[in-house]
Amino acid sequence: MLLALFFLGTWPAILTLLERRGRLPQHTYLDYTITNLLAAVIIAFTFGEIGKSTIEKPNFLNQLSQDNWPSILFAMAGGIVLSLGNLSTQYAWAFVGLSVTAVITASITVVIGTTLNYFLDDRVNKAEILFPGVGCFLIAVCLGSAVHASNAADNEAKLSSFSNDYEDGTAIEASVSKTAYSHHDLEKRICTNEKAKFGTAHFLMELEQKRAIKVHGKGTFIGLAITFFAGICFSLFSPAFNLATNDQWHTLKDSVPHLSVYTSFFYFSISCFLIAIILNISFLYHPVLNLPKSSFKAYLSDWNGRGWALLAGLLCGFGNGLQFMGGQAAGYAAADAVQALPLVSTFWGILLFGEYRRSSRRTYMLLISMLLMFIVAVGILMASSGHRK
User: Fold this and answer.
1) Do the domain assignments include residue 388?
2) Where are the transmembrane segments (predicted)?
3) What is the mean pLDDT of residues 130-138?
4) Within-domain flag for 389
5) What is the pLDDT of residues 47-104, one digit of tens each?
6) Which of 33, 63, 208, 367 is the most exposed place for a label (fewest CB within 10 A)?
């Protein structure tokens, strides 16, 4: 689960990096989803084939021919909601930032998903420890929203101050959200050849010019709405996978063994792949959020950042697989401790993207409080682990 935590906290940072460099999200996500499926195939043909296949515990290839369609459908339903959640977060990152998106989605996932998994797992986890941890995640989501609001106010203040300082006789709006700056404008108003420093108004405007999704001028309500939708999707995929592997609703025939984690993950990833391919090819020709149109031919010829997108898919695929392995062993409610991924994402957000650089003291205090609450919540959640019989 420690590896899962690192992988699941890192892949969003890679996709965010590509969006900020101007690569279309549709192109990035199509690359990502290919290697995401590849990770499941690798896991199925390695871990899924280890050991001798028995009637009670068949290997991956043996399970493919069994009459286990009810469990397969649960696994594929989990893959569908995960794919919708991942696709939504790729757009949410542009609006509210990597750190806040990760915090809100992870908190919703733990509050809803962990509760469902607790009852599905026949209360294998200690409720008196588990639910105080869930409460800490609720506090974390409130702090995450406060961090975003405070940081957005800081950025508006920087931009307002910048436009006043560099006004040269032409009308410059007080906020970058009300105007679009061209590269010529930037060169004209900023007499420096040095790279813009993280957290400055110059940096914020250069970022707006480079990124694929233009967010200035759009209300943050859009970003938060997308984020909460993604959180709901994320909260359902683990319980669906739990039902696929443990058949708590007794949908399988008595003689049919339960799906292994590896077989379930294979079907889970197939549905995730299909939904991602269908939606993203559609978005190439009918983009959302005013993104430019593209085509499948343009996608195939776009090699700028493709390697990073493929790496992100592998990290996400192996991260999900490792999370499910941990859940099958110690209870899926406890395995939701990997939702501490905002700790990793925030680290990458600060290191790679300069998030919260030159922000106010209030923003820093809220950020520290949010991260501390996450650490406490994850520690409590992991302490609730049980042993599946």
Assistant:
1) no
2) 30-48, 69-87, 93-120, 221-244, 264-286, 307-326, 332-352, 364-383
3) 84
4) no
5) 999 988 888 889 999 999 999 999 999 999 999 999 999 999 888 877 877 667 877 8
6) 208
Q: How far apart are CA 260 and CA 36, in angstroms?
A: 19
Given the structure tokens 């006043």, which residue do they identify? 164
Residue 8 lies in a domain: yes
Q: How far apart are CA 341 and CA 284, in angstroms?
A: 30
Provide, rounded to the nearest whole percent, the portion of the chain with pLDDT above 90.
42
Q: How far is CA 353 from CA 1, 17, 255, 377, in A?
A: 26, 8, 54, 26
Among 9, 2, 99, 104, residue whose Cα is nearest residue 344: 9
**Residue 238 near residue 78, CB atoms below 8 Å:** yes
As for how many domains the chain has, the answer is 1
Q: What are phi and psi of 188, to 5 degrees?
A: -75, -35
Q: What is the dihedral of CA 256, 257, 258, 260, to 10 degrees?
A: -130
